[in-house]
Amino acid sequence: MTRYIQRHDAVKRTEHWSHVTSTIVLITTGLFVFVPALGEAIGKDALGVIRLGHRIFAVTFIAVPILTTIIRPKNLSRQFKNVFAPWDEDDKKFMTRFVPYLFAPKKVHMPKQHAVKSGQRLADSVLVFFAFLIAVSGVILWAGAYVAPAVITVALLIHDISFAIIAIVGLAHAYLGAGIFQPYRGIARVMFGDGLVSESDARYHWGYWAEEELESGKNVVEV
Amino acid sequence: MLKEFYGPYATAENNYAFDMMPKLNKINHTHIGVFESVQEGIVKGMMCWGQNPAVAGPNSKFEREMLGKLDWLLAVDLWETETAGFWKAPGIDPAQIQTEVYMLPAAGHYEKQGSISNSGRWIQWRWKAIDPPGEAKDDLEIMHELYKKLKEIYEAEGGPNSEQLTKLHWPYETDGRADITKVAQGMNGYTVADGKLVSNFTKLAADGSTACGVWIYSGYFNNNEAPNDATKQPTGSRLKDDPGGLGLYPKWAFAWPVNRRVVYNRASADVSGKPWNAEKMLVSWDGAKWVNNDVPDFAFKVADPVDPTITLSWIPPNNTAFLMQADGSAHLYGLNAMKDGPFPEHFEPFESPTKNLMNGGQASPVLTFGKAQSVKPSDPEKYPIVCTTYRLSEHWQTGGMTRNIPWLDEAMPAMFVEISEELAKEKGIANKDWVKVFNDRGSIEMYAMVTPRFKPFECDGKVVHQVGMPWHWGYASGGSTGAIANDITPNVGDGNTSIPEYKAFLVNVEKA
Amino acid sequence: MAKNAILYDSSKCSACKGCQVQCKQWNMMPSSLDRNANEFTGSYQSMPDLNGDTRLLIEYRESEKDAGVEWAFSRRSCFHCSDPACMAVCPVGAYSKLEDGTVKLDKDKCIGCKYCNGACPFGVPKYRDNFKVSNKCTLCDDRTGMGREPACVQTCPAAALTYGPRDEIVAAGKARIEQLKTEGFTKAELYGETEMGGMHVLHVAPYGLEAHGLVRDAQMPTLVSMLDIIKPLTGLGIAAVVGGLGASFLTGRGYLRDEPDAETASAPKTAKEEK
What we know:
The complex is a heterotrimer of chains A (223), B (512) and C (275).
Chain A: E1 3-6, H1 10-34, H2 36-42, H3 44-71, H4 73-84, H5 89-103, H6 118-143, H7 149-177, H8 189-192, E2 196-198, H9 199-205, H10 207-216, E3 220-222
Antiparallel strand pairs in A: 1-2, 1-3
Helix pairs in contact in A: 1-2, 1-3, 3-4, 6-7, 9-10
Chain B: H1 2-6, H2 31-39, E1 45-49, H3 53-56, H4 60-67, E2 72-77, E3 100-105, E4 114-117, E5 122-126, H5 139-157, H6 162-166, E6 173-174, E7 177-178, H7 180-188, E8 190-191, E9 210-211, E10 254-255, E11 283-285, E12 290-292, E13 301-303, E14 311-314, E15 385-390, H8 406-411, E16 416-420, H9 421-427, E17 434-439, E18 442-451, E19 457-459, E20 462-464, E21 466-470, E22 505-511
Parallel strand pairs in B: 1-2, 2-3, 15-21, 16-18
Antiparallel strand pairs in B: 4-5, 5-10, 6-7, 8-9, 11-12, 13-14, 15-22, 17-18, 17-22, 19-20
Chain C: E1 4-9, H1 18-26, E2 57-65, E3 68-76, H2 85-89, E4 95-97, E5 103-105, H3 115-119, E6 126-128, E7 133-135, H4 141-144, H5 151-155, E8 161-165, H6 166-182, E9 189-191, E10 201-205, H7 222-251, H8 271-274
Parallel strand pairs in C: 1-10
Antiparallel strand pairs in C: 1-8, 2-3, 4-5, 6-7, 9-10
């Protein structure tokens, strides 16, 4: 019998699935406008379909998080709490050791963490913030005809910079969150599967949180 | 001319139908005069061909009222103009109008064949490019149908002076349709016996053997080798030869009279016949004969009467240059020709904000209609601001055509009055404000264009303001509509021509 | 084909708008067919700015000076820059430069994103609502391609517009400036010789650039230059991250989670080991 903790609920996991899909489609379709040579290569009609797809998934990118927040506001408030929680010694240690850890996980030992790792708190904030910016700037670009040209140029710049940031941080986020990084193997289940994390994994990644959850037992499942 | 108008009916016995021609009487029959005559009940019906007095006439509000006094009005135009639809004018109650109005749609200038003359006296033949739309006809055709119908009625019913119309010589028809080529031939002139076109007016005789509608044009349609082909006539010629490079282009259209491009060209050379400017030789005496690039405007040779191309002798240069003066000399003033003069004099306009400081008079003592009731002269105390009217590049005349062409209408979309910054400040008017310009003849409203290009004057120690406005707008149009500037211009006229004093009169201006 | 250019000499211009109307006619650009549809601008200017249906606009600027009123006329239309911002920012390569210097917008490629509307330092390209593309002066490439002058040049009755090889146009413009200066136009300037890499529509501005509404030292807008940098930077950034993560992956080969040590006190064996 192994003990598992339910880390993420169904609402959260659904939202994440949707958001990942939207993001991947948006990046792919967006690339055809971002890189002129690609757009030129496929021609105006095909590009029109691509741009339509970009807009459809822009709607889901914006609408689904809003919807799930309405359904389960706790998820958003918890996220906020995690982001703005105080930065302690463990957090500082985590950040200084993180890069070496990426290249020498056997040698570098990471400090115990709370519910959300320090690095992830940072990455999440960046992703959410720039997602917000990219959404707003995207809507402005979509509104095109009804907006002053100068505003469009600024919106375009914000959209491009946001894309750059999201792409870069997002790649790292995916590398870790999907468990491509060997120490994180198996962690994909937590967001993409049934949301369960084993006791040993939980203690490895989020020591303090694991202890709290195991003690309370509310979210513990025995398999 | 009479021989052309009355043809076979005009003979030596009846003085070539001279009695058939209407004669001048004491009534002033100019534009202003016509509307006064309407008011007096003398003129009962009117035909306006391509004319829009409802907008273009001086004191146009009065003129519109007079149109409502007519028994009937015939309007011939490309669009329903303000005149054709005068009962739709603001301030007119259609229920009160008894006038029978006929509107005949006319063809535009690309939709008919005929000639056009420019201010350089060139008459150029032009061809039809496209059929007119719907039921529109060209003016000649309308005139022709009207003539035929009127002749029918007059012949059947008789009427005052009916022979004036029924005896007219009117051969201008081919296959039942009006034929402009026949009109051209009639205007050029021909020998009656054989119908051969005369070469120019020198071949016209006063004995009924020749006929010519317009002697000064004679020669413009004179090619007997192809009398029905306008392309082979001087007026239809489009050759770009320019001997001497003087810009005369003698084979491009026909300059009346006799294709002379520069009138009084004798004056381009000195008394001895030497051109003042060797590079601009129009006529030149080389010691033995005259050499010319333009048709000489003086007696320069004696030609063989039978074959004018043979020169019998050359007339050496003398000190006369002005053919149309009896003594051949230039005159500084015209004797017995003008009602005013002999020298130019300064007069204030009929409505002026200031005294005439030059000569003890005020306005011209010979101006016409100054006492007409319709004029309602502006009192400078009530109306101290000078107003003038002018034109824009984008619109033409009353805007009947240009306000119906979207590109032009967009280029200048609204009626306005230009006001100086000083006057605007005085009246509390800002640029683009809606303002009223008025006097006792009328009150019109439009946008204000406040500009430093207008400046107040100082006249006789007083500040006098001036405003100006274009006169291209009216209430009829597919595009833009606007106030009629001429509602406030005075219907007084120049002493000699009765040309209205459109350009200087008095108004007041207020924010509307 | 040599590089050609138009010279607009404002000192000869009578602001008759012949060019403005002819441009619309040649290019079949519509004007409203509705009654009183066009607004009064408060001056002789037809409308406040270029728009989707107007590619050339004559502008009127009045200013009071000691010597009198300067009524400066200006031709507002595409300058056909040698280094055009519109082309730099277009995401689909709808802009191209023809041999003679014309900056051409291919309406079949244009997706109507309006990036060029904002990028142009002069705000020239305008969006056409009914066609969903942007548009601007074409330098009448359909005419010049057949050896004819642009429509505006042909129609100008004041000979204020001339067209020909660019070096001749520049020389003529300079000569005109010198001539104007001798006539008392002390502020006369030639515009377009070097701005934006050199323009193919030059202006003789008798009252100086500002009086004619011309942008002094016009340059590629900073935002546009930034957009230009963003793309390669983003590419580099992504490449760097992918590279870094790839290296991280490689260095992590054969990783097995350690036995718990002092720092990870309650860390048990991995799930793998437990199973």
